[in-house]
Amino acid sequence: MREFFNFFLKWRFFIFFFLLEYAAIFISFSNSKIHQYIYADSSNFIIGKIYESIYKVRNYFLLEIENKKLLNENKSLHEACVFSKIRKISKDLKKKDIIYLQQYTFTPVQIINNSIHKQENYITINKGSIDGIKPDMGIILYNGIAGIIIKTSPHFSIAISLLNPKIKVNARLKKNKYFGTLSWDGIDHEYVVLYDIPRHSIISKGDIVETDGKSATFPEGIPIGKVHSYKFDEEHANYIIKVKLMVNFSAIENAYIVKNLFKEEWNDVQLYKVEKNNEFN
């Protein structure tokens, strides 16, 4: 109590001045409508700014939640697509029953690093071996393919980008199913090149190019781009097609890792085929 009185005596003039100032301001605002309006406007402005900030913060976190929700919904849609399943015909051919077995699953990931201006470009994602990610798994986007995993750590993975001449992808023209090999020529990150399309194929500008499912990495039917231009290669007697990518590689953020549930079986069969060919040769 003694300390309180000492404090009050020491600061009595400041406390008295503060009380007088408060009383003056209160009386002034109470008797002046102009001051009341100014005070009200100032208060509304400050409160409005506070609410605006709260709204932006809330929307930021809600947007992140919505993005995750959309990624999971797209994952389910990919897995439900018939191209993500393998057909198994019933033994009883009279019934003509076709059973669809799940062949691919999809894991949502975020792209945390990506290059597009180098001759050999790579992608880093935020999931690794503890999430079931393995080398040779494909990366797809909502509007195309991005690359193939080449190395994993427990929490991260690196993929070779489609914008890398070392990657070769089986692709086809959607309208007639003629297929060839697609790769990047190292010139423009908006275009890739489709080779080995037969000379009797009918090609038009704007035709859709998609994956053909002839590898164990990507399901068939994933769009890659559209025919921009084409020319006939006299030396090899086939078409070379310049394809405008649907993916804008300078702005990719979210993706899916494709897991082929039959990949080991696929590889075993392919290895057996190679061994048999070597025996005959």
TrEMBL record:
<feature type="domain" description="Rod shape-determining protein MreC beta-barrel core">
    <location>
        <begin position="111"/>
        <end position="259"/>
    </location>
</feature>
<protein>
    <recommendedName>
        <fullName>Cell shape-determining protein MreC</fullName>
    </recommendedName>
</protein>
<feature type="transmembrane region" description="Helical">
    <location>
        <begin position="12"/>
        <end position="29"/>
    </location>
</feature>
<keyword id="KW-1133">Transmembrane helix</keyword>
<dbReference type="InterPro" id="IPR042175">
    <property type="entry name" value="Cell/Rod_MreC_2"/>
</dbReference>
<dbReference type="GO" id="GO:0008360">
    <property type="term" value="P:regulation of cell shape"/>
</dbReference>
<dbReference type="InterPro" id="IPR055342">
    <property type="entry name" value="MreC_beta-barrel_core"/>
</dbReference>
<dbReference type="GO" id="GO:0005886">
    <property type="term" value="C:plasma membrane"/>
</dbReference>
<dbReference type="Pfam" id="PF04085">
    <property type="entry name" value="MreC"/>
</dbReference>
<dbReference type="InterPro" id="IPR007221">
    <property type="entry name" value="MreC"/>
</dbReference>
<keyword id="KW-0133">Cell shape</keyword>
<keyword id="KW-0472">Membrane</keyword>
<dbReference type="InterPro" id="IPR042177">
    <property type="entry name" value="Cell/Rod_1"/>
</dbReference>
<comment type="similarity">
    <text>Belongs to the MreC family.</text>
</comment>
<keyword id="KW-0812">Transmembrane</keyword>
